[in-house]
Design goal:
This protein is of the alpha+beta class and about 170 residues long. The chain has a single domain, classed as Yope Regulator, Chain: A. Helix 2 crosses helix 4 and helix 3 crosses helix 4. The longest helix has 28 residues. The radius of gyration is 16 Å and the shape is elongated. The two termini are about 15 Å apart. This is Diacylglyceryl transferase. Pfam families: YbjN (PF10722). InterPro entries: Put_sensory_transdc_reg_YbjN.
Length: about 170
């Protein structure tokens, strides 16, 4: 992933750091005003669309990956159990199930209170952690939703699939 110089810092708006990374790495991205960018990262099974937004008033950077497709009725309990198992394995961020949309989402927030700046290395870490989480969560969710597997079996199978592609 990284080809930018380590420890360079973009002042003020952390979204600029992610735009620089997307440009340098030739990732498809769309800038939505000054406070938001969407970046597409290629995964093993699908492209993962990262949405990053900057809330200057709260001095908080938020990252979201919304998984394609809705959870069919009757599977939400299994999905929630799966997300709990996935969350146990994460070092940053977490998975949520948004009941209103029947949507799976990975999200992570970074506080930059007190004028803290995000370095390229930190931004790359945030993106890498999100991609790693999505690569584990996406196939496991598919196994639960479409193959009817238990959350435990789905997670085990997804982790084996990831290892075989590494």
């Amino acid at each position: 992933m990284p080809s930018l110089k380590a420890s360079s810092v973009v002042r003020d708006n952390p979204i600029e750091t992610f735009v620089r990374i997307a440009t340098a790495e030739s990732y498809a991205y769309e800038r939505i005003g000054d406070q938001e960018v969407h970046i597409s990262l290629t995964g093993l099974w699908c492209d993962h669309d990262l949405s990053l937004s900057w809330n200057a008033a709260e001095e908080q950077l938020s990252l979201f990956i919304l998984f394609d497709g809705k959870v069919p009725g009757g599977r939400s309990d299994s999905i929630c159990r799966l997300l709990s198992l996935l969350n146990e394995r994460l070092t940053a961020g977490h998975f949520d199930f948004w009941q209103r949309n029947s949507a799976l989402v990975y999200r992570h927030a970074v506080s930059l209170r007190g004028g803290a700046k995000i370095s390229v290395d930190q931004a790359l870490d945030v993106m890498s952690q999100a991609l790693d989480a999505a690569e584990r969560g996406y196939p496991a969710a598919q196994y639960v939703i479409w193959a009817g597997k238990s959350p435990e079996d789905a997670l085990a199978e997804a982790l084996v699939d990831i290892a075989s592609h590494s």
